[in-house]
Fold:
Amino acid sequence: MVERALNDKLIEDGRKLVEQLDKSKAKLDSAFWLYVPDSESWRLVLDFQDIEKRGPKDAYRVVQQALGTVSPGSLTLDDVAVAKPDFPILKLLRIVIKTGPGIGSIRFTSNVINGHLIEDAYICRLN
Structure:
């Protein structure tokens, strides 16, 4: 059984977080919800352009600040994962999807890319 379902409220809170990160000039390249089968949960995966230079600790600090300015919702820092550009699933998704700099809504369910199953993802941005 899924620990926490991806619902409209989480999707909307994720969208608000992405908008806030864009306003803060955080250089967010990618943002997508990913179902993690091992923990039966969803994570909002964020990829920043300068993550290699700044490091994950700084990226999480920026996310925490942005969460503090977004209206209270169901999204917490525990729901977020900061990814490096070489994160395998991010690399796979980039093979088949490019959204550009805006915020979209693409459901990507039960698809195989180069022999790897992506059980479920909800893509907001993928550059």
